[in-house]
Amino acid sequence: RATWVSNVQTPSQKVEKIAVLGAGTMGAGIAQAAAFSGFDVVLKDINDELVAGGRARIEKLMRSAAKKGVLSAPAAEERLARIQYTTSIDDLTDADLVIEAIVEKLNVKQDVFSELDKQLSPRAVLASNTSALSIEQIGSATKHPERVAGLHFFNPVYKMPLVEVVRSPATGDAAIRVLVDVVRQLGKVPLVVGEGPGFLVNRVLFPYMDEAVRMVSEGAEVTAIDRAAKKFGMPMGPLELLDVVGLDVARHVADTIGSLSPEPSPTPEFLQRLIDQGHLGKKSGRGFYLWK
Ligand code: NAD
């Protein structure tokens, strides 16, 4: 069940500091959006190199926003100074909200949530940017599942206005109120949705991308499919979109949502063959297209 929210009560808790876990495609985008909107941010990844990669992307995004006149150059620098970069969970302990954007694997996310649950005050809200995993199962790794919810951003974060706020059967109203309020402060549109494979958007979107991959596996041309979709009015073709999402990320989503389809799909295996060759899409320079 999806609810457009116009009357969610103002939260009693105020969020000032947001911790973001994972400095990859989504984590860097979320951290940039949060700092842009005036939150204090701490961004964590597992090593200095990955943190530096996220930092470079954030600085590029913020400075290009300044070049486009979205904010002044001094304001961009002030926002950048709001972001702390770290590899240590100790720097997250005073965050009011954690947004996790790490690898799409249930057991890894469960380990991280269990650790966060122990380290952070029980008042902090813990959110996952998972595309398709169960928030209830992620929350079950904690002692406070009422403060665990999904906060599903779309790529690229600075451009996409919709954010799904995912409520599991265990999520409390207080956490939902905090998240709806934060999404609004980010200048975005919150959509509260229930648990279910793919939530709302990916449940609609994936069958479309799945059919495109099926056609490629049957011999259709990548560019012909994408050109047709664009002429039809889509901003991007389905295969270009898969490259932007990342084929590895898409594979996990396809596995989860594939269970909804009555017919077995060739998509997970097809994507895996590309992944095995290091073709992860735009981020690795090659997917269905060459990006360099
Ligand atoms: P990514 O591979 O670009 O980045 C993930 C990052 O998390 C990596 O830098 C990795 O080193 C880091 N990481 C792994 N374990 C960590 C830990 N314990 N602590 C801190 N950092 C850790 O992945 P992504 O595309 O940004 O996806 C992240 C999440 O967002 C996934 O759950 C994915 O399903 C979801 N998502 C992705 C998209 C998309 O378009 N790519 C869209 C919506 C949601």
Automatic annotation (TrEMBL):
- Where would I find the 3-hydroxyacyl-CoA dehydrogenase C-terminal domain in this sequence? 198-290
Q: What keywords are assigned to this protein?
A: Fatty acid metabolism, Lipid degradation, Lipid metabolism, Lyase, Multifunctional enzyme, NAD, Oxidoreductase
Any one Gene Ontology biological process term? fatty acid beta-oxidation
> What would you give as a GO molecular function for this chain, any one?
NAD+ binding
Q: Residue limits of the 3-hydroxyacyl-CoA dehydrogenase NAD binding domain?
A: 17-195
Does the keyword Aminoacyl-tRNA synthetase belong to this entry? no
Similarity comment: In the N-terminal section; belongs to the enoyl-CoA hydratase/isomerase family. Belongs to the enoyl-CoA hydratase/isomerase family.
Name the UniProt record assigns to this protein: enoyl-CoA hydratase
Species per Swiss-Prot/TrEMBL record:
Stratiformator vulcanicus
